[in-house]
Fold:
Amino acid sequence: MALDDLLRAERLSWFGTEAQDGDVVLFSRVRLARNLINLPFPGRADLGQLAEIQQVVDAAFADIGTEMGQSFDRISIDQLTSLQREVLIEKRLISEKFAEAQPHRTAYISADGCISILVNEDDHLHIQAMRPGLSLTQAFDIASRIDDYIEARLDLAFDETMGYLTAYPTNLGTGLRASVILHLPGLVYTRNIDNIVNISPQLGLAVHSLEGVGEGAHLYKISNQLTLGYSEAEMLENLRTAVGEVAAHERRARKALSYFGRDGVEDGVWRAFGILSYARSLTEQEVFDLLSRVRYGMDRGIITEVSPACYAEIVVAARDGYLKYAAENENLSTEEVNNIRAARVRAILHKYQTQG
Structure:
């Protein structure tokens, strides 16, 4: 997929509603941190060393597309415009830190958008794999396959006692960070979300609102905090079990709302649907807040006029950077962006109207 196609794509293949536990779990991500031997971490490397790291990785990745069965775009971050970087951040293909202006940062992104490999962020390599729903094992298998490909071609920094050596001590050992994104309006509405957040550290996990979308979106990230002294299988199973428990609590909360305060909840759902369907100007935050209520209404069978598949497309198409890039005008005023956003949301809802 060419860079322009990647930036303009309205859907993310790893973000769906039909996957396992898709009513609560939106997607799973696994990231592996790896470093080359005899070269300093990027934060301590000079420009010559950063260039050497980039060259070594480029040579090793010459046939990665053949190995993985799909093409990869090689993207030099310092050659992108600020708007292109913003869209890649919105699509969670690169991090905000990686997008900072620094030479010799390269991203390898798969044609399906499920894999992104970042070169010269905090570590020499960050391997990221994403899959829809509660799919930690599948995401880990993809990341591991790339890790095996790399280890067959490059010497990685590894210690028999400490495991993989990483820029941050918190990533020592497996170098694995796994996270799952959940939609939790039920726990928020019933005021039980704080119980989940407060107990998570005792389980070696962290629960935070998903950055960049605001609290009203009711999106939360659950991730592992321990990497040293545990195997990858143990960490993934711990996270999978915890997510399963949270999802069960969320479903019970949604069911309770069907009996207690039902009229108020349904009124909020329909008001949100009405605004998204007819508004002529919407801010990004407004869309995420309203969309959460609408998605809740779809999951509970309150709204049947529109397919839940619209959710994944609106999440992409309502972002500021995406709208400016699609319009080929990064100088659009706030008012112009809000007007375009409202029109785009209306069009998507119309496209996903169910028949009958």
About this structure: The radius of gyration is 21 Å. The longest strand covers residues 25-34. The chain has a mean pLDDT of 92. Residues 222 and 229 are 20 Å apart (CA to CA).
